[in-house]
Amino acid sequence: MPVPLSHTRFIHRRGQPARPHICSKRPKRPRIRRCRARVSATVGTAPHTPYRKPLMPPTDNGPLVTHDVIMDIVTPALWGPPTSCLLPEQSSCPVGRAHERRMGSSVKEGLLPQLSRLDPDADLLEDTDAARPPAAPLQEGDQLPSNPKQGPFFYIGGTNGASIISSYCKSKGWQRTHDSRREDIRLKWCETKCRDSYYSFREGQQLLFQLPNNKLLTTKIGLLSALREHARTQAKVNKTQPSAQAKFGEDVGPVSEELLWTSPGYLGPQRVLKMEEFFPETYRLDVREERQTFFTLFDDTQMWICKPTASNQGKGIFLIRNREEVTALQAKAQSIEDDPVYRKMPFRAPQARVVQRYIQNPLLLDGKKFDVRSYLLIACAMPYMVFFGHGYARLTLGVYDPDSSDLSGHLTNQFMQKKSPLYVLLKEDTVWSMEHLNSYINDKFRKTKGLPRDWVFTTFTKRMQQIMAHCFLAVKSKLQCKLGYFDLIGCDFLIDENFKVWLLEMNSNPALHTNCDVLKEVIPAVVMETLDLALETFQKSLRSQKMLPLLSQRRFVLLHNGEADLWPRLGGSRTFPRPPPPRPPLEATAPAPRARRPAHPRAPGRPTSAVRRPRQPGPGPERPPGGIRDQTEEEREERRSASHRGS
């Protein structure tokens, strides 16, 4: 029995629909569900509805479709629940019929441009308040939809470089959110690592700044332990005696790495470095054996620097220059170790420290001490795509005096220099560009020291790249890698008066402030290229495409291309080689006797055990060799036909 039609009156607001209140609870379902069936011919003849110019010609299955009918369908999909107030007078809308509305021209003009961009295959007629679907895989050119509630969203935790990151994301049409617990965040950049960020991370759908265990590189003890273990591994492979520094610590397992490092860039094969060639002598104060070794070898002619393992900005650092200071440090360390409170509650123990031999003959620029900040970029963790980036030179405000007790004359970072009252007037002199440093060394030291021309951009740059690659290879097998992780690490190098390059430390979350003219040129370029490379490598890894060439690579230099490494599966272990491109699935076929398949070229690195072996023939009537060959051909044809049906 047909359902009688009803006259339903709609009251609409003019202008854009009001944005509904955002809350964590699920909104109530509308009482009337939008219909997807044919449009009733009686709607166009309603006495209160004027004639609308048709958008599509009439068909045999239904009447004309007008502007207002389409906007009645599109509005819930774009803006959420409708803002009109529905006043039923007799009965509800019959199933299979849509209603034409009277709508204001301002709403019409605002929504029609969006209509042209809609996917014609998209289902726009589902419930407007359905449960939020999972975020789609991140696309490099994602643009912001018309609904301000819907992403892509990005989250920034902290103020370090926030304006640069925000400008970059907004230029791509993304929208910033301050809710770190949203499930549909596409990019999360946080200064401080939080366990919840990694627990809720969706691999292959999000980008997350900072690898979870980057402390293997960015803490003093982590980097020291990694370099020692790597040195012991090299000594075993080379069958040589490890250095004195490498003897401390314990081996956690053999790590097989190549002894010749080859850069994918313009560098050729390089000899693997020894730890003592680029890393100052260092001892841990939280290990009794190392602590006693340091106290024994110290003499008054040396200068040492004591650092907390996980601090930055010069916090907690002090110098050790005489026996009295060593004795005081020894007594303090012993009292902490003997304190029963710290034995019962080890989590209250003070932060572990290291002591490092101070480089007392640094190269000076106009009498000032300096070091160089460069960048190690891990743009992709699956596979690893590691890059080197130039930074800038950091100088002290005052002339270098090794006997001075003022730490601002020994530490070059901006945090320490800002403590001086002269910083406001001389801050531009505390930061040099790499071009400025190169010109200065060419003018002052090229002839006197016999250096090659452009020593900064040739010898020095290659040495920094070699040291960075050495440190990365030392921890590569231990870093937690998932598709979507990326990291930018600040590396501090010091040059002594003999032009020997020393790695002082590596820092997570490097300073991205732009309080100097040089920093205003360097930092934004580093951040933008970091995000460009992270997006491009993410997309290529997601689609199993070759990484090179990289269109977004400008100033960064590739150090390590991990495409040839063992490919870790999404959320799995790293013992599997990179899978080949997916093939069309085969339909289920009737069981047939197994036979040797035609030989296919195996992917490099594929384990031999993965090759399927033919089943040994069981008892039965004897068959001639030709019969087996014919049966194999028949099975091959059957599989071909099945694959064509399934594709």
User: How many β-strand stretches?
Assistant: 19
Alpha-beta content class? alpha+beta
Number of helices: 16
Instruction: Kindly report the average pLDDT value.
Output: 73
| Ends distance | 45 Å
Q: Assembly state here?
A: single chain
Helix content: 25-40%
Overall geometry comes to: globular
The fraction of residues in strands falls at: 15-25%
Q: Using only CA atoms, what is the Rg?
A: 34 Å
The major beta sheet can be summarized as: 11 strands, mixed
Low-confidence segments: 10-14, 30-135, 251-261, 263-267, 571-582, 584-593, 600-632, 640-647
Offer a few descriptive terms.
16 helices; eleven-stranded mixed sheet; 15% strand; alpha+beta; 647 residues; globular; four-stranded antiparallel sheet; disordered C terminus
Explain what you see:
- This protein is α+β, with helices and mostly antiparallel strands and 647 residues long.
- Helix content is 28%, strand content 15%.
- It is built from 16 helices and 19 strands.
- It has helices spanning 67-79, 105-115, 162-171, 195-199, 215-218, 220-238, 288-297, 323-338, 340-344, 414-417, 423-426, 434-444, 446-449, 456-475, 517-542, 625-646, and strands spanning 9-11, 85-87, 153-157, 175-176, 185-190, 207-209, 260-262, 269-271, 282-284, 304-308, 318-320, 353-357, 364-365, 368-381, 384-395, 431-433, 485-495, 501-508, 557-561.
- Strands 3, 4, 5, 6, 13, 14, 15, 16, 17, 18 and 19 form an 11-stranded mixed β-sheet that branches.
- Helix 1 packs across helix 2 and helix 6 packs across helix 14 (456-475).
- Residues 10-14, 30-135, 251-261, 263-267, 571-582, 584-593, 600-632 and 640-647 have low confidence and may be disordered.
